[in-house]
Amino acid sequence: MKRASNFFNSLLIIIFLLLSSCSDDNNIATDSPEVISNREVKIAVVLKKGDRQERVQRILDMARENITMARGGVVPSYEYYDEDTTALASLAVELASRQDIAAVVGCYDDQHTKTLAYECAKTDKTMFTFNTSQELARIFGQHGNYWGLSESDITQCEILLSLMADGGVQFDVALLACDNDYGQTFVDWFAFQAAEMGLNPVGLATYKDKSEIPDAYLKACANNPTLTLCVPNNAEEASIMYECTKMDNFSHFSVPFFTDRAYEPAMLKNEGLVGLNLVADPASGFGVVYKSRFGEAPIHGDAELYDAIMLTCLASRYDEVHNLDNLNYAVGTLLYYHSDSQGGWMSGNMKQAFETIAEGGVPEVSGAVGKLDFDPKNYTLITHSTYDFWMVYEGQFLSLNYMKRSEGEHSSSPIVSWEWNKTYQQQFDEHMSDIGYPALTGNKAVIIAGSGGWENYRFQADALEYYQMLRNSGYSDDDIILIMADDLAQNANNPEKGVVRRSVDGDNLYKNVVVDYRLEDITYNDLAVIFSGKPDVAHPEVLDSGAGDNVLFFWSSHGMPAGLALGDIDLVSGKQMARILQKMSDEQRFRKMMWIVEACFSGGVAKECEGIPGLLVMTAANANESSKADLWYAPYNVYLTNRFTSSIISRLYSDPATSLRDLYNVAFTGTLGSHVTIYNADNYGNLYQNTMREFLGK
């Protein structure tokens, strides 16, 4: 990882910046008595009050004081709302529509931030946040009004795992996380990143209530991990986690590494505890000035709030000088020309920035958090945050190191696409002798969208894309068993009744669709009958394949370590599917079967099916990973597709005769945040020689 420069140089920089700050303020105070007419820039601040109110108010006052001293012709004024006690849904609508509000800053809570961002996106209201949930940037980053001043927790997860991997030892690691939007980022990325770093993920557990933490800890650590990544929602939950390491009924001790929400004074009683926390770049000088002024170090959110106020005022002045009437464009222009120097948040440097703007130029700006590096194509999130690796020592938080994500390596910051360069790819034997099969006489297909509801739009949309692709390649409807909830086309949330799309300008996938079974009518037992090929009154449509038929089987749904979702309640386990498919094989009811599974933790189900002749399973994720949605569509307020399916479909349309090995490569490299995995290749054949033409050749 990229580490801070040596202590001596850092100390000189901090002293220089501190002295500069002091002399800068003094110079301004003794300047000419010219009166500057300041235009008010009104900013809505939607953050917690309670024990946070004093900290927030400090930053608001400090920013207004320095901006006033910079004499740039604008000064911030605030409307401060408590995100926990205000009727946030109605407030969000009001703030997003008010012309007198230049920008909105909020929130701490993930769901609150989403509520606010959703309304601001509708009106293009400029919004700043330091919330670190991965989903927020993916959903709102494409609107051009959402500015994140902290990297997402994908990076925090990466850095914590890199600390665990230090020394090159392949430690067994586990994850214990709160079951909410904050914890979900770690659940989504933990196993994937651990595998990439040479760690061995052996356990994962979540909890909804603090009372569930001890049982969740035992579940996460059941396989005796050396290290456990602990993701509490607050310091109280972190303390419970720490006490779990001392439980009498659990002899194995796993070293806990804590995330930023454990960085609270209540944790100082736990000597030796280690964790990570978002901080301002020490080189900016903000932390030193803040501690000198207030007697304590800033926490995550302090520097980010300051920068949000500063950027709003600078952009508002730029917008005014250039008659833009587009604050988001002004913010983007300022962030495009970021400064390589530090200390731009101080009044003297802000004064220079305002003067450059007044002269018609674009200043180079840096902030209290450090360099304001944003991706120039997509913006959305700052590309490099600074993290403090801390340890509790003698009742204090001792900083062990300041860390940033490695530049040019794992690009985990979700600048909309949140790309990661995967390295752990499967290898297949190019010279393997192929398996002899009977002649191909027909093609059949089973398509299951196991999760329904508008919020799960992508699963049915992907299933319908497969259906239409097969129909276009020559399958009749009698050749396809289609199982789905069928609740999208006429859904109350659908602005285009009768239409289901998988891309913004895509075809209507619902056209001429025949749904054989609706999800609410299907259980595992029904599946067993359908795959048996023996129709009855309740199951008139069955998979009537024979020894010469190739069967393409696609399943898209939510998944859990215990199995694949089949509706809101049922889970179909790997053992259950193995029984169905093994029975088909024993009865010689398929020649070859290609099963493509789009679901979280789908590798666990596929692994149970290994050993069945003629079966090849390709999964979106291995047994420890979650798969990832793709392409958020604001008018529908849903994801339209899943990334794994999107990669495969694109390849099959462009090259229906692609080899299975090439299809795997395309899916592997095109799928973000999980390892696409092939199962049972040894019982299927040479993946270099076998192609998808056998399934799409009609």
Sum this structure up briefly.
This protein has 698 residues and is an alpha/beta fold. It has 20 helices and 25 strands. Strand 12 and strand 13 (396-404) form a beta hairpin.
Could you name the CATH class of the largest domain? Alpha Beta
Rounded radius of gyration (Å): 28 Å
Question: What's the number of structural domains?
Answer: 3
Helix content: 25-40%
Which overall shape is indicated by the principal axes computed on the Cα atoms?
globular
Name the poorly predicted regions: 1-35, 407-418
Under CATH, the homologous superfamily of the largest domain reads: Response regulator
Distance between the termini: 52 Å
Mean pLDDT comes to 89
What's the number of helices?
A: 20
Q: Main sheet?
A: 8 strands, mixed
Structure description:
With 698 residues, the chain is of the alpha/beta class. It folds into 3 domains: 2-150 and 281-386, Rossmann fold (3-Layer(aba) Sandwich); 154-262, 3-Layer(aba) Sandwich (Rossmann fold); 444-696, 3-Layer(aba) Sandwich (Rossmann fold), CATH 3.40.50.1460. Helix content is 35%, strand content 19%. The protein contains 20 helices and 25 strands. The strands form 5 sheets. It has an 8-stranded mixed β-sheet with strand order 1-13-12-11-10-9-7-8, with helices on both faces. The chain has a 7-stranded mixed β-sheet with strand order 16-15-14-17-21-22-25, with helices on both faces. Strand 4, helix 4 and strand 5 (126-129) form a beta-alpha-beta unit. Helix 16 runs parallel beside helix 17 (602-608). The longest helix has 23 residues, at 7-29. The protein is globular and about 85 Å long. It starts with a strand and ends with a helix. Mean pLDDT is 89; it is low at 1-35 and 407-418.
